Amino acid sequence: MQSTDIRTRFLNFFKERAHAVVPSSSLIPSDPSVLLTTAGMQQFKPYFTGEADAIRDFGSRSAASVQKSFRTSDIDEVGDERHLTFFEMLGNFSFGGYFKREAITFAYEFITREMGLPISYVTIFKGREDIGVPRDTESEQIWNSLGVTDVREEGIADVFWGPTGSAGPCGPTTEIYCQNAAGQDIEVWNVVFNQFFYAGTREELLAGATGKKLEPLATPGVDTGMGLERLAMVAQKTRTIFETDLFASTIALLPSTMPERDKRIIADH
Ligand code: GLY
Q1: Distances (CA, A) of 247 to 4, 53, 264, 267
Q2: Residue 255 CB-density burial (10 A; 0-12 exposed, 13-18 middle, 19+ buried)
Q3: Are strands 20-21 and 62-70 parallel, antiparallel or unpaired?
Q4: DSSP secondary structure letter of residue 110
Q5: Is the backbone of residue 209 left (phi > 0), alpha (psi -120 to 50) or beta?
Q6: 0.90 cut: is pTM over it?
Q7: What tens digit of pLDDT does each residue of 183-241 get?
Q8: Is-contact 39 167, C-beta < 8 A?
């Protein structure tokens, strides 16, 4: 399946499920707490904090987008089989509407039925008492009810999203792993349950900064992020994202004598 078809399928899948399709926002965000747009949720932050109203702006409590994103945090890993600085993020969002059951069921149906891909395993948050977030047993039960039994627990570094920038929405996540042609299990989709607001950075949250704690979010909801390039790798049965139709033609222009990693870094640029 070509990457253009994946984008269209994703947006149509969520449009058919009452999501407003919202264009990608600029890579230069209106959020002054970050330099570049790092995720699909960036343009939607005000809808979670209660500063903006999704019904008024989109006519729906749910939205879907294909967001151009840039992450300097992954820059040293570019050139391996799956990391990029610039990528496109497929995302569906709920602002005070659906929550865990619907979000997990949508993700399961899109991956297994719409894309016809097997799920290797999923992850859930194992909980952390000191910040007051319990183990995500509810998500585990929902996955089990859908027939996904390989559910692995992970900690705050891996399966607790956000906040982005100097403050913002955050919450536990559940991730979906699928296999690429090299037999590696690749994280393709991160389904975030935004339940909290943290008035500090992610680094402060991870360090347990004194005087700062998770507060209930004004408009709890769902924020998902799935890398188009990683999904294309799995769907097109390639060993790396650089062999997908998104990069193959650029790589083919480069001299065959050039080291593989250099070619991939140029293609990312
Ligand atoms: N906001 C979810 C993600 O970027 O993975």
Answers
A1: 13, 38, 9, 6
A2: exposed
A3: parallel
A4: I
A5: beta
A6: yes
A7: 999 999 999 999 999 999 999 999 988 889 999 999 999 999 999 999 999 999 999 99
A8: no
Q: Ligand 1: distance of its center to the CA of 224 in Å?
A: 6
Strand partners, 152: 123
**Helical segments of 71-214, H only:** 100-109, 137-145, 156-159, 202-207
Distance (Å) from CA 252 to ligand 1 centroid = 31
Pocket-forming residues, ligand 1, beta carbon under 6 Å: 39, 41, 161, 190, 192, 223, 225
Nearest CA to ligand 1 atom 2: 225
- The span from the CA of 128 to the CA of 131, in Å, is 6
- Residue carrying the six token digits 């709920």: 94
Locate the ligand 1 atom nearest the alpha carbon of residue 224 and give its number: 2
Which of the listed residues 24, 34, 41 should we mutate to test ligand 1's pocket, taking the one with most ligand atoms within 8 A of CB? Answer: 41
* Token duo for residue 208: 């347990």
* CA proximity to 189, closest of 113, 89, 84, 115: 89
pLDDT by residue, tens only, the chain of 269 residues? 999 999 999 999 999 999 999 999 999 998 888 899 999 999 999 999 999 999 999 999 999 999 999 999 889 999 999 999 999 999 999 999 999 999 999 999 999 999 999 999 999 999 998 889 999 999 999 999 999 999 999 999 999 998 988 999 999 999 999 999 999 999 999 999 999 999 999 999 999 888 899 999 999 999 999 999 999 999 999 999 999 999 999 999 999 999 999 999 999 99
Give the residue among 37, 28, 13 at the shortest CA–CA distance from 108.
13
Which is the closest atom of ligand 1 to the Cα of 192?
2
How far apart are the CA of 173 and the centre of ligand 1, in A?
9
